[in-house]
Design goal:
With about 290 residues, the protein is an alpha+beta fold. It is about 50% helix and about 15% strand. It contains seven helices and ten strands. The protein has helices spanning about 5-10, 15-35, 35-45, 50-75, 80-105, 110-140, 145-170; strands spanning about 190-195, 205, 210-215, 220-225, 240, 245, 255, 260-265, 275-280, 280-285. The chain has a six-stranded antiparallel sheet with strand order 1-10-9-4-3-2, with no helix packed on it. A four-stranded antiparallel sheet has the order 5-6-7-8. The longest helix has 29 residues, at about 80-105.
C-alpha cells in the first residue's frame, strides 16, 4: 500500500463527513468556552505561527526514540536502555494530548476535502496513541516483548498519520498563509477616488492581482492592508469594524487596519501592509518599504 494510495483512500471515506458534522460543533463550542485568550493560545497567535506543527515533533520524535531504544535494548539486553525506552514512550503518550488539542483547534474551521482528510489524520493518530498507551500497559505488566511490538505498530500508524498531516499542509495549503507573496506596485498608483473612502467605510480594490482593503482609522488616517485574511482567505472588507480593528466575516480573526497586526485569532500571521496617500482627489498606494 503506497502512501499516495493511502491518501486517496482516506479522501474517499465519505463516512468521515458524518463524523465531522457531529464532532465539529462540539469542538467549536469547547474552544469557544476557553475565551479569546484560550483559543489564541491553542491557535498559536502568541507564537506567530500555528502551534500544532510545533507540538507534533515531540510525540513523533520520542516515539521514534523509544522504538530505536527497544531495538538497542534487545541487542544489548540492558535494563537501563529498556527503562529509557519506556520513558521515551511515556513522554510520547503524554505529549500526544497537547498535539491533539491544537490539532482539533486547527480542524474546527475546515471544510470539504481538507476536513475529511484531516479527520482521517486525526483518527490514525488516535489509533497510534491507543497502540502506544497499550504498549506502556504491556511493559508495566512485564510483557515487554509484546510492548515492543505494539510500539513498533504505533510508530508505523503515527508515521502514516504524520505523512497525511504533511500532505494537508504542503499539498493542500491548510494553515499556510494565503497572503504570502503579496507585493503590490513599487511606486504609488491611484486605485480609488478619495470621495469613496469616507468615514470608516471599508473598500476593496485590486492592485497587481492582489486584493487590498482601504479604510480610514478612527482618527481619519488612510490605511491599507491585504484584504485576504491570512487564516483561511476570508474577505476582510466584508467584515465588521471595532474601532481600528477589522474582524474577518468567516472565522472572526482580528487585525489592526493600519499595521495589519493580529489582534485576535484564529489567524496567526499579520496582514501585509501598504503605504497609502491621497493626492489630487485620488487614493494612491504602493507596497510598504519596511
Amino acid at each position: 500500500m503506497t502512501l499516495e494510495f493511502t491518501e486517496r483512500l482516506v479522501a474517499s471515506q465519505a463516512w468521515l463527513d458524518g463524523v465531522s458534522d457531529r464532532l465539529q460543533p462540539i469542538v467549536l463550542g469547547a474552544v469557544a468556552k476557553l475565551g479569546r485568550r484560550g483559543a489564541d493560545l491553542l491557535d498559536g497567535v502568541w507564537l506567530g505561527a500555528p502551534l500544532h506543527p510545533v507540538l507534533t515533533d515531540v510525540p513523533i520524535g520520542t516515539l521514534t526514540a523509544a522504538v530505536i531504544l527497544d531495538a538497542v535494548g534487545v541487542a544489548t539486553r540492558s535494563p537501563t536502555v529498556a527503562r529509557q525506552a519506556d520513558g521515551a514512550l511515556a513522554i510520547s503518550v503524554a505529549s500526544s494530548f497537547a498535539a491533539a488539542a491544537t490539532g482539533l483547534a486547527d480542524w474546527r474551521y475546515m471544510r470539504g476535502k481538507s476536513r475529511r482528510i484531516a479527520a482521517g489524520h486525526g483518527l490514525l493518530n488516535l489509533a497510534g496513541l491507543t497502540l502506544n498507551a497499550t504498549s506502556l500497559a504491556l511493559r508495566l505488566g512485564d510483557r515487554r516483548g509484546a510492548g515492543r511490538m505494539t510500539a513498533a505498530l504505533g510508530l508505523a500508524t503515527s508515521g502514516l498519520a504524520a505523512h497525511i498531516g504533511g500532505e494537508l499542509t504542503f499539498g493542500m495549503g491548510v494553515r499556510v498563509n494565503p497572503t504570502a507573496g503579496t507585493s503590490g506596485p513599487s511606486e504609488f498608483e491611484p486605485v480609488l477616488a478619495e470621495s469613496e473612502a469616507e468615514g470608516m467605510e471599508m473598500r476593496r480594490v485590486e492592485v497587481d492581482g492582489h486584493a487590498v482593503l482601504i479604510t480610514r482609522s478612527v482618527d481619519g488616517r488612510l490605511c491599507a492592508i491585504a484584504d485576504t485574511c491570512s487564516h483561511f482567505g476570508g474577505p476582510l472588507a466584508e467584515g465588521t469594524r471595532d474601532g481600528d480593528t477589522v474582524i474577518c466575516p468567516w472565522h472572526g480573526s482580528r487585525f489592526d487596519v493600519c499595521s495589519g497586526r493580529v489582534r485576535g485569532g484564529p489567524a496567526v500571521f499579520p496582514q501585509p501592509r501598504f503605504e497609502v496617500r491621497a493626492r489630487d482627489g485620488m487614493i494612491e498606494l504602493r507596497r510598504a518599504r519596511d
